[in-house]
Fold this sequence. Notes:
The first copy, chain A, is an alpha/beta fold. Chain A has helices spanning 10-21, 33-43, 52-58, 107-114, 129-132, 153-165, 179-195, and strands at 2-6, 25-30, 48-51, 61-64, 85-88, 119-122, 145-150, 169-172, 202-208. Chain A has one domain: NAD(P)-binding Rossmann-like Domain (Rossmann fold, 3-Layer(aba) Sandwich), CATH 3.40.50.720. Strand 9 (202-208) of chain A pairs antiparallel with strand 9 (202-208) of chain B. Chains A, B: Residues 2-92 form the Pyrroline-5-carboxylate reductase catalytic N-terminal domain.
Amino acid sequence: MKIGILGSGNMGRSLGILWAEQKHEVFFGSRTAEKGQAVAESAGNNTQGGTNDEAAAFGDVLLYTIRGVNPAEVLTSIDVLDGKILIDCNNYEIPENFAYQPIELSLAEKLASEVPQALVVKAFNTMAQEVFELSPQPLNEYNVSVFVAGDDEDARKMVMSLAADIGFAPVDCGELRFSRLIEGLGDFIRYLIIGQKLGGYATISVETLPEAKNQRLGGRQSSSLH
Amino acid sequence: MKIGILGSGNMGRSLGILWAEQKHEVFFGSRTAEKGQAVAESAGNNTQGGTNDEAAAFGDVLLYTIRGVNPAEVLTSIDVLDGKILIDCNNYEIPENFAYQPIELSLAEKLASEVPQALVVKAFNTMAQEVFELSPQPLNEYNVSVFVAGDDEDARKMVMSLAADIGFAPVDCGELRFSRLIEGLGDFIRYLIIGQKLGGYATISVETLPEAKNQRLGGRQSSSLH
């Protein structure tokens, strides 16, 4: 897969390296060609680098790491995004004292409204840098979820496949509007990591347990959460 | 520990049984003494039953399962709650098509404002009935989180201990205001269980992974979530 990274800071650089290690073709984009090239040089693994425009033109899948910024301010023309998968991995800034505002509109939905011809998919907003260091092994033994939401099912499945490639356990979360809940998870795990001092190896995941052998309690099943 | 269950439906009945199995003294309260007694009779394990007033008087720790209802409407006098630990395990009702409203005020905070002399603790709102069937074994091997928030640290620690008793892995989430995020987790896991058909054995948990042996990516640590 050809992957373009828009904004090659910490997050973009790390995910780009992980995908390049798995033999994907990766292009690091940045505000200037020099900066993008420098990231590629330090990243190795046959990666390339240049401007964000070049990265957007290069990739079939694009990772958008530029939190809350309209792509029209980043790219010469947003037409280059038409029909491409655009992964939004962002969370709102952490407010003073973790006094998060309730999420009325997710960053992913905001992005989708700005580039309606792109296939926006929410993913990779619930783990810290430390977790990427564990990819792909032993990470693939730990069942760490990547929560994936997007209105285009094929795009969602592609991103789930890219998550699995680097050792994560993708969870299909359906439509893009569920990004609101997923960004809420991003808020929660950042609070635990930083505010509650669990550190960057703290992860949040969904796991389906094996069924009980005996049903001794006799309550209603499944829909019984209060 | 003496535990009173206020509202002995599915959730209250199951948790009451689990605690009684661990040799806690449990009293099931209900709108009528007859109903509370009937729950105790079917629950066994030396449990007692009667009115909600009696359950509130009996317990040092109280489980409040009556979603969103002011205790003043349930009890003859709320003075009986003064200084007692009051566990709120509730989530807002699931709206049509899972179109959740953003949580401005959590149910737990609403409850705390209604009974300011009680020590309200949020817990047990992120798992379905099925998971209780696995308690305490093999549940204690699965690291299933109970997210616990409350403004009184001792109360929080007591509820964490009650969660551990029945095989869960308690996670200290700090002040009661973080119930907003925890109730968001409740919304999310109910969507996955029902809407995405993962079923009632789907759980959401926090796990801290072992550190990476090599730090090859070289990004900033810990605060690097986007």
